Amino acid sequence: MKEPQITINSAKLSNIQDSGRYGFEQFGISANGAIDMYAYLKANELVGNKTSQPTIEVTAFGLSLTSNVDIPIAITGGEADLKIDNQTIKSWQTVILPAKKELTIGMIKKGLRVYVAFAGGIHAKTTLNSTSRDTILDLGTQLTDGMILPLNGSTEATDMKITQLEDRPTYGSPWHIRVCDGPDTNIFTESTAQFYKNKYRVSPVSNHVGIRLKGPAVENFKTPEILSRGVGVGSIEIFPTGQAVVLHRGRTVTAGYPIIGVVSLIDLDMIGQARPGDEIHFEHISIDEARELYKQHFNKLPYRR
Amino acid sequence: MGQEDYKFNDYGDAGVLIEFSKTFTMAAWQKVHYLANQFLEESIPGILSIIPTYTTLFISYDYLIIERNELKKIIDSYIKKSTQQQINITGRTFKIPVVFGDEYGPDLEFIAQSQQLSEADIINQFCSKPLPIMVINRGPMFGTNFKKEVPRLETPRTEVPAGAITAAGEQISIMIQKSPGGWRIFGQTPIQMNMTFEENPPVYYKPGDMMLFYPINKSEYSKFEGLTISDTELKL
Q: What is the DSSP letter of B194?
């Protein structure tokens, strides 16, 4: 019997991500994991995976691959042209990828990341209990052309599911990103009002580690002496020049810059989907509001990690 | 210690920064690591990340599993039941050979000048007693035993070798892998300290362990190559 597997025909900027490498941040090993966690989890749910399995995270430029068996897949995340051979397929629902036919994901048009989940999951190198790609420590798997990844083998029929429209995020510029207070909000008392009025654009120098913002400098604050301390994903650091960067899942776990606010969990996925050049507005919300929004959205999923 | 000892600073909707002091004190550092160790030993459901540093402990948590007030209660209970013995973190001692100066420590001269000491004095001072590992962030970090702050490089080097002993401000850091860096390099150790991802924990040393540095000659460097940190442990 042939071993079920996929072959990456064109990898572009794709890698393997799962829900993250938790439990090692005390050593400086960042959790990483899918940038758009909701889309990642949804893709897994759509193919009937009982636990969150590794997926392919496609960034910006698309991907193509072939399977040697018929396999249920689901594609979620940003908007791109999706085809199996010459036939257009839809995202946010279960699709059967027939053996030897090529799945092509075109350039991503809205948002920046697309997720491909496979029924049963794919087998990828596991380090410290996770397959997630860590570009700084070089852990996990960066896909390359011609790479073969074994499928875990669950090719049996799965329920064909479609995500309700209300459960699909809306991707695209301008992005409204909701932000909660952080540990240093008191340092920025005179500059937060302006920060929340400003328009920012995503700089091309952005990645899993951080999203750099171009726009008016944050003013009227004094950079205090801050001893290196643990920093959370979503932290909006302000450099002494007044420029801002939003730390994402691949951040370095300690830093000493003041933090004007922290992107709420619900919108962490969205800021990670913003493309270079996209417009960003920040809106302040309370921690309680942020938790309620996250709960409504993520509680519908069968698992969160 | 009591509840009034720390500040519970909410950090976005899914994090908290526990702060024991604004400025560095040994007492605050000890409390941070005592608390971190309690969390790491008990692995409480919903706690996703524990990052202890000098005076603060960052925790990220899944508030759909553990609510903020539950988390605060756990912290209070750890603090209430702490004993001075637990707070006094003790550790092992590692003896680390270092080649100082020249191509192994191109900034030794700069550091000596900045401290208004001779290069030999800097080496003696640095090697005079074991330094406790204060923080781990991809490598061990220590406080300096220098009298003045060490200014960073204005333009970071694009490549700092593994094993480089570097200083900036009031901190010392050992580079565990080749990477860019703006800290001043004053020596290099042949001992490998890189993470071993096949093992759990992936890092052999921990905060509270001590490193006692001693100078070796350039000609001795190769003798120690291939040794890892566990080979240097001082057995009492």
A: -
Q: A233 touching B, CB under 8 A?
A: yes
Q: What is each CA distance from B78 to A26, B12, B14, B39, in whole angstroms?
A: 19, 23, 21, 9
Using CA atoms, how far residue B14 sits from A46, A244, A278, in Å, is 27, 21, 26
Average pLDDT, rounded, for chain A: 95
Rounded to whole angstroms, the Cα distance separating B123 from A46 reads 62
Each residue's pLDDT tens digit, A25-71: 999 999 999 999 999 999 999 999 999 999 999 999 999 999 999 99
| Complex ipTM over 0.90 | yes
Smallest CA–CA distance, residue B129 to chain A, in Å, is 24
Is there a contact between A26 and B57 if contact means CB atoms under 8 Å apart? no
CB contact under 8 Å between B40 and A234, yes or no, is: no
Provide the token pair at A71: 């396999």
Do A97 and A184 fall within a single domain? no
A140, part of any domain? yes
Are A229 and B58 a contacting pair at CB < 8 A? yes
CA angle centred on B74, ends B48 and A248, rounded to 5°: 25
* Cβ <8 Å between A22 and B48: yes
CA A183 to each of CA A27, A222, A296, B9, B43: distance values in angstroms, whole numbers, following the listed order: 22, 15, 26, 6, 25
> Cβ of A125 under 8 Å from any chain B Cβ?
no
pLDDT of residue A103: 98
**Do both A107 and A50 map to the same domain?**
yes
Q: Answer yes or no: is pLDDT of B154 > 80.
A: yes
The two structure tokens encoding residue B88: 């006094």
Task: Select from A122, A144, A167 the last residue of a domain.
Answer: A167
pLDDT in tens, B31-81: 999 999 999 999 999 999 999 999 999 999 999 999 999 999 999 999 999
B180: closest CA of chain A, how far (Å): 12
Residue B11 is nearest to which of A139, A252, A262, comparing CB atoms?
A262
Residues of A in contact with B138 (CB under 8 A): 27-29, 137, 252
Residue-number span of the structural domain to which A199 is assigned:
175-298
> Which CATH architecture best describes the domain B93-232?
Beta Barrel (2.40)
Both tokens assigned to B44 = 């409480």
Interface of A with B in 67-86 (CB under 8 A): none
> B90 pLDDT band (50/70/90 cuts)?
confident
Whether residues A15 and A157 fall in one domain: yes
pLDDT, tens digit (0-9, with 9 covering 90-100), for A73-130:
999 999 999 999 999 999 999 999 999 999 999 999 999 999 999 999 999 999 999 9
Same domain, A12 and A161: yes
Residue of chain A minimizing CA distance to B204 = A27
A196 in reach of chain B (CB within 8 A): no
